[in-house]
Amino acid sequence: MNLKNVYILDDRAILYVNGDDAKEFLQNLISNDINKVSEENSCFTSLLTPQGKFLYEFIIVRHKNGFLLDCEKSQADGLYKQLIIYKLRSKVDILNLSNEFVVAAFSYDKFLTFDGAKDNPGLTLKYREDPILLDPRNKSLGARLIINLEKLYLSLKKLDLHNADLKEYYSLSHKLGIVPKDLNKLQNKLFGIECNYEELNGIDFKKGCYVGQENTARIKLKNKLSKRLFPINLINGKLYEGESIYNKDIEIGKVLINEEYPFALIKYLDKNFEENIEFKTKEAAIEIKKPYWMWE
């Protein structure tokens, strides 16, 4: 990312959870540990089905007496409804603040120019009253500013940040193997741990129970993780959601997201999966790249 570039993430939404039981409420649901979230630190997490399948993912940021949930806009209504279902008698208020707040992303190098900045994913600072955090998934995605829409452009001007093409940010995210959009296409299609949430700092295996914890822990402890979500690079042709991917006549995966930034669930331990070869679908030739962080 260019030092002066900023990307207005208009595909993101902000929910706000507060109330006397907000912390305990979230802790019982999410795959990460809410105790990691403070004025100085934010975290990435997911909400799974009871079977451990993917439903929603979001970043949690401490804000006043509650928590901001930074999620994909296409998932916001579903996430809101799911939280309401789980609310029951908890003393919790859940608000959709997407019309008031906006998320903007800028470079890792720019983040390091702020007072108190450190090379710690999730580290959270304040610019005036607004949180700025180094992306807790991977620092290569830079930092995020969550700010009231009315203050956005004046703040960007003071920070000497200039609006850049959002496709640049999407392309970087895709190259890093982090899904930038179309997350609803993954719902109920794969386990949360198959989304690489352990490597993206989205699962805490030491915390207590949460929705989907049993199968997530079983896959981890019994070393049964044989498939992972990988980005696809289209060489030629057309991709279709749900179609199989082949090495010659051997199926090694399925396309889950087929649009501009495609992803597939890949049998990455299969002897027929090799990174530097050309794979086929019904009408396309593709290549599949392992994200660099997966083997660090």
Shape: globular
Give the termini distance in whole angstroms: 22 Å
Largest sheet: 6 strands, mixed
- Regarding CATH, which class of the largest domain? Alpha Beta
Number of helices: 6
**Structural class by helix and strand composition:** alpha+beta
List keywords for this structure.
single chain; 296 residues; alpha+beta; Gyrase A, domain 2; Elongation Factor Tu (Ef-tu), domain 3; 2 domains; 6-stranded mixed β-sheet; 6-stranded antiparallel β-sheet
What's this, in brief?
With 296 residues, this protein is an alpha+beta fold. The chain has 6 helices and 17 strands.
What do you see in this structure?
It is a single chain. With 296 residues, the chain is of the alpha+beta class. The protein has 2 domains: 5-175, Gyrase A, domain 2 (2-Layer Sandwich); 226-295, Beta Barrel (Elongation Factor Tu (Ef-tu), domain 3), CATH 2.40.30. Helices cover 17% and strands 32% of the residues. It is built from 6 helices and 17 strands. It has helices spanning 22-27, 73-87, 108-111, 152-158, 166-175, 213-221, and strands at 5-8, 12-18, 43-48, 54-63, 66-72, 93-96, 101-106, 124-127, 130-134, 143-148, 162-163, 228-237, 244-247, 250-257, 263-266, 279-280, 284-288. The strands form 3 sheets. Strands 8-9-10-7-1-11 form a 6-stranded mixed β-sheet. Strands 13-14-15-12-17-16 form a 6-stranded antiparallel β-sheet, with no helix packed on it. It is globular and about 55 Å long. The relative contact order is 0.16. The mean pLDDT is 96.
